[in-house]
Amino acid sequence: HEAKRNGLRFAAYQPEMSQRIQRRASLEVRLERAIRERRIELHFQPQVDLQSRRLIGAEVLARWQDPDLGRIDPGEFIGLAEESGLIHALGKLVIEESCQQWHQWRSSGGTDLRLAINMSCKQLEDDGFIAFLAGVAERCQIPPRDIDLELTESSVMRNPAQVVQQLALLREHGFGVSIDDFGTGYSSLSHLRQLPITQIKLDRSFVSGLLQSRRDLSVVNATLTIANDLEVSLIAEGVETAFQAERLQALGYTLAQGYFFDRPLPASVFAESWLSLAEPSSGSGSPP
Ligand code: C2E
Ligand code: MG
Ligand code: MG
Ligand code: MG
């Protein structure tokens, strides 16, 4: 009787569950195909110096539009990619395409630009990953110091021992390592001290709370102290207003990123607005 009651209880949930499972299965098949056909697009969001407002780098953000289902949120497809193992192929695509784009911008006279590439900890479990990354960087003639790899604080804290070793290897190759969404992952200072990182990226939730919340202000200040203490660079993400930009600067922040400066942009738009590189078009003079 007990089993039957349980059975009925589960049966009642089934339609909703199976819908979720079906969407997931369908998305996985579609994502696999999209990666294989290289239909993942990259957007670039400027990172700026707060004082001069000048461009210092761009964060690369993956975009996926399915022909039938429309735009899928990165929060959904990155999670799916991590669970299904597709993250390895997706991560390689993002690295190849963004480094090729960097090379093309550089060849057409683009100024110094660093790339911030998001990475899942899962990718570090692949033994060939760092060699792959180094190979792509070399082919595209991008100095490793111009690439920052962003890992979320929570993912780094979940498997520190294994990750630390791989991060150290990334550093030996000269790549930058940035801790993304900082402040949300409960790292202790002693933990952080063991991580071979070059940058901390303050999570946007603390930037948006700057105006109202004293606790957010204290995280913003504490993060600055930690970055100084560890002698790593610091950037704030999710800056949406002039007030937030001014406030962060007054508190001692030097770098920022967010809608206030610009949204993540398709490569052509990014080049036009931030690199003063118009897309090649007929009729205009040829580049020098
Ligand atoms: P993230 O790395 O923390 O990226 C910042 C997210 O905040 C992006 O969301 C960006 O569009 C958004 N954002 C930027 N400025 C502002 C702002 O001023 N206000 C607000 N409200 N949001 C802002 P997006 O593109 O949806 O990406 C979500 C997450 O997906 C990323 O968070 C990153 O963790 C992950 N992701 C995106 N592309 C990749 C990728 O190629 N590989 C991996 N492993 N993860 C990726
Ligand atoms: Mg990021
Ligand atoms: Mg972030
Ligand atoms: Mg995030």
Automatic annotation (TrEMBL):
Residues 24-278 form the EAL domain. Coiled coil: none annotated. This is GGDEF domain-containing protein. The chain holds residues 441 to 728 of 728 of the full protein.
